[in-house]
Amino acid sequence: MNARTGYLVAALFLLALFAFLGVQSSLAAAGADLTTGQRAVVMLQWWYVVLAVLAMAGLLARHAGTRLVLFAWAAIFVTRNALVPVYRDGKGLGLALAGGAVGLAIAVGILHLGFRALEPTGDHSSR
Predict the structure, then answer these.
(1) How far apart are CA 22 and CA 27, in angstroms?
(2) I need a labelling partner for 111 at 20 to 30 A (CA). Which of 4, 10, 17, 41 fits?
């Protein structure tokens, strides 16, 4: 397995994992009496699931627009992670910042893996 394939497999695995967790969390909230903020969090989860699926397809096809999809996924993922402590758990701004920071760290890691997977095969040997 070459480096590009390793980056691809890791990015696909993580995107699939977070898509699964997003679906699971959204379905768990189905039927509950949600506030407007909680409904917004659930909607963000569905959007990052859709974008994760599109990103996975783009990574497999090595489509040129995949980087934009990954950036959109990352933005929604970070936003959702920042909003969950406030709207779902009723916590304060400190936990929202911590959730956003954790989401940002995860998103940056997945962006790195995805972008490396999209590079031409020969570019990894010089790094």
Answers:
(1) 9
(2) 41
Distance between CA atoms of residues 37 and 125, nearest Å: 47
∠ CA 87-27-89, nearest 5°, is: 20
Q: Identify whether the C-beta of residue 98 lies closer than 8 Å to the C-beta of residue 51.
A: no
Q: What's the DSSP call for residue 23?
A: H
pTM value?
Answer: 0.88
Quickly state the pLDDT bin for 33 (edges 50, 70, 90): confident
pLDDT in tens, 42-76: 999 999 999 999 999 999 999 989 999 999 999 99
Buried residues in 1-38 as b, exposed as e (16+ CB within 10 A): eeebeebbebbbebbeebbeebeebbeeeeeeeeeeeb
What does each C-alpha distance from 1 to 36, 50, 78 come to in angstroms? 47, 29, 31
- Which amino acid appears at position 78 of this protein? V
Q: So where are the chain's domains?
A: 3-124
Map tokens 């909680």 to a residue: 38
Rounded distance between C-alpha atoms, residue 28 and residue 6, angstroms = 33
User: Which pair of structure tokens corresponds to residue 74?
Assistant: 């990352």
